[in-house]
Amino acid sequence: MSVGDLTKPHGAGDTNGADDTEPVPDRLSLGVAARLARYLQVLTKAKKEGKETISSQELSSFTQVNSTQIRRDLSGFGKFGKRGVGYNVDGLVSQIRKILRTAGQHNIALFGAGHLGRAIASSDVFADHGFRVVAIFDADPEKVGTSVGALQVRDVATVPQVVEDEDIVVGVLAVPSSAAQTLADQLVLSGVKIIFNYSESLLRVPPEVTVHTSSPAVDLLYALYFYLT
To answer: Where in this chain does the record put each CoA-binding domain (predicted)?
Structure first.
């Protein structure tokens, strides 16, 4: 089902536009930040489909967050206009990006030019949220110099210089577990503070570096637990 297929009535507590925002706190709680990111995912999809307004009930149906909680989360950052109309999609996307401090463009270095790496590079999953893959690396000499879309695969030996030249803030690891820690070490030494890890390796990094590991197996176990209980 697409966001555009939804026809539920707009919630009475919803708002339209973004005209009276509150100052953003220095640091959001993990729960609020996680929920806002989920709302942004749905809103971005709705925006791509040309949807102009969306209700809290619609957001709830896609995020599995109670509509009352959604309204509470959003009202904590200010008033968004008239009640009973629905949230203005474009305005709310901009506001949540400001709240999450993700407005603007952020450059990514992708490691791994295999099937997964190429799928990530060709996907809109990052671009839709202001992240742009500007460099792809691989340790395989046969892949170095080949093209992935408009980018040429680089040798991992050039990581420090490329991170500096391209102002890279995020490293994405789409590599075998055996190579992940070495690459993470290179990224840390190059000054990258955020690593998105698609491998099963448990990375060891300094406290100031954030690692998010995406594991389909763990996600399935989580879903299965709630299905069985």
So the answer is: 104-202
pLDDT at 27: 72
Split into its structural domains, the chain has a count of 2
Q: Is 221 annotated as a binding residue?
A: no
The verdict on whether residue 109 carries a ligand-binding annotation is: no
Residues 123 and 196 in one domain: yes
115 marked as binding residue: yes
Residue 189 annotated as binding site: no
CATH of the domain at 9: 1.10.10.10
Tell me the pLDDT tens digit for each residue of 1-22.
Answer: 444 443 333 343 444 444 455 5
Q: Which pLDDT value is given to residue 146?
A: 95
227 falls within a domain: no
* Residue 46 counted as an annotated binding residue: no
